[in-house]
């Protein structure tokens, strides 16, 4: 295929629409789906369809996020309602072909929530009023084959990039981004447009754009899912950001623990390069940008910007004090801008539909949607995307079904090892960056671990502290020594040997670590201890000697 | 000290990355996916080819959890100890494996057949608890199901 120029994308989109088969079967093949047997289900369906000579497309797609019900198969045939099936095995797959496809009679078993119930609002099927979800970041996840750029283009893909380079220009992009109010989805919530502006205003012969795909927070996996299910949306966001700040090289930094995500991004970059969407003179403009992938190697601290850049440079991932900020001196001492996967996947819709549209979603200074990974003791664990301002209860109970019958939900933990717990009596809180901070936790990357009445809060605090001690890079004393001492204190409490004085020491140490640590890891490491102590003090006191 | 015995595959892995700045980590990834770990002799070859001190290579290898400097077992089991898996009881899976396989301190069986390690989140939290056995992710496991998989591997081994 030759390089694309202005107008080609819209033409390709129309061609895709005209060529699309009306009857199809989609099999979700993200990491979760594959682990549950989706590859086998796909092969069975594809072989049978071939054997029976059916005029129906069997396609591999990404993941709609209902991990608890994998493998997921969606069926759309004319004359029968579009249906999502969960926990599909060989016999269910064959029944789908016999009954739904051949006789137009959908099965009555294995029914999973359909795309409308999951918040995909552009399917032509009416969304039930009870649905709290709204898909922007995950708009294509489970809808298209992530290994085919044509399908992304068929859904309007790369037209935001075209509009950025040919119509809006960098200033226009910044204006829309500012209006949108989008804030960093990696956790800190810094306004994205402002971050871009800092790097754009820096003077240098070379600038870098970096995508942070080092999703190290245990319990959060939305970045993996988006990279696997819709790699082109992240690439498009990356290119728009690079264009705006004036970068000509971009790096994807992705965890080595996510091999499928790495494969799909590498494949997507190759396809985009062939079409002239990556490389020299993108879409016939003067903008050139090449993209490369670098692998993480299992260090939580590399999610911190300066540590991440050290790692891309091939060094140990130890953070450096700021200033200088990455926007002045980042990768190889050149101005650099780092955004998280989810932030970048939000960019194209904002450019295409306008910042004002995005700002109309959410509440106050927390605009737009956020993807949460709801896991732990919840019944229907998976990824949900909701407008900010949705309450915790609406996510945990209404959308994900709460905890098992007979058990009581006790708390959630957000923000991973840097966050804190939020007890069930605060579940009517509307989620914003500010409200979670007030409760002593953080938004973080969106992990939401549900705990029930059997979970021991001191044990949870000890678990997170153990994680931070292992992951501390050792550069600064407050984190290296303070973390270890906190862990020893928690072990002492668990062993019923601690006194009231130890508790006082624990809170003093925690506050010293928060104030004196060099980077975010150490500054936030005591949060799980402090927040469990704040809300579940009796569980600590019960254990005192 | 070992010299001038650079094997072709190491040379190939290094060549691919040599010209790009800061790509030591990527070269080490290639080597680990080839050998399952980064052998000391290979590190020496890489040092020679990429013109970096051996100490720099070890500085990187020992900092990152993903790199291993000891050979893995014939079969490798990673037990996820991410938060979701921990809450759903992955510690009991780890204990069961350690007891049944009588692992030594570094998590390997005496015959080198099995190596068990713990990892922090493989990003499959929806299926917690999760173990990865020889690269294949198994979700919603219990000590019983994992031990059954291990038995199958042992039988397959014995049959060969």
CATH second-level architecture of the largest domain in chain A? 3-Layer(aba) Sandwich
**Mean pLDDT across residues of chain B:** 91
Residue share in helices of chain B? 40-55%
From the 3D structure, determine the CATH topology of the largest domain in chain B: Glutaredoxin
State the helicity of chain A in percent bands. Answer: 40-55%
Which blocks of ≥5 consecutive residues of chain B have pLDDT under 50?
A: none
Task: Give an overview in words.
The complex is a heterodimer of chains A (545) and B (160). Chain A is 43% helix and 14% strand. Chain A has 21 helices and 15 strands. Chain B folds into two domains: 61 residues; 85 residues, Glutaredoxin (3-Layer(aba) Sandwich). Chain B has seven helices and four strands; from the N terminus they run H-H-H-H-E-H-H-E-E-E-H. In chain B, helix 1 packs across helix 3 and helix 2 runs antiparallel to helix 3. The longest helix of chain B is centred in the C-terminal third of the chain and has 17 residues.
Question: Layout of SSEs?
Answer:
The complex is a heterodimer of chains A (545) and B (160).
Chain A: H1 8-19, E1 24-28, H2 31-35, H3 38-52, E2 57-61, E3 73-76, E4 83-85, H4 90-103, H5 149-154, H6 159-180, H7 192-201, E5 208-213, H8 222-229, H9 231-245, E6 249-254, H10 259-274, E7 290-295, H11 305-312, E8 336-340, H12 341-353, H13 355-359, E9 362-363, E10 366-367, E11 369-376, E12 382-387, H14 392-399, E13 409-414, E14 420-423, H15 433-438, E15 447-452, H16 457-471, H17 477-494, H18 500-516, H19 520-524, H20 527-535, H21 537-541
Parallel strand pairs in A: 1-2, 5-6, 5-8, 6-7, 11-15
Antiparallel strand pairs in A: 1-3, 3-4, 9-10, 11-12, 13-14, 13-15
Helix pairs in contact in A: 3-4, 6-7, 6-9, 6-12, 8-9, 8-10, 9-12, 16-17, 16-20, 17-18
Chain B: H1 8-18, H2 24-35, H3 40-50, H4 54-63, E1 75-80, H5 83-87, H6 90-100, E2 114-119, E3 131-133, E4 136-138, H7 143-159
Parallel strand pairs in B: 1-2
Antiparallel strand pairs in B: 1-3, 3-4
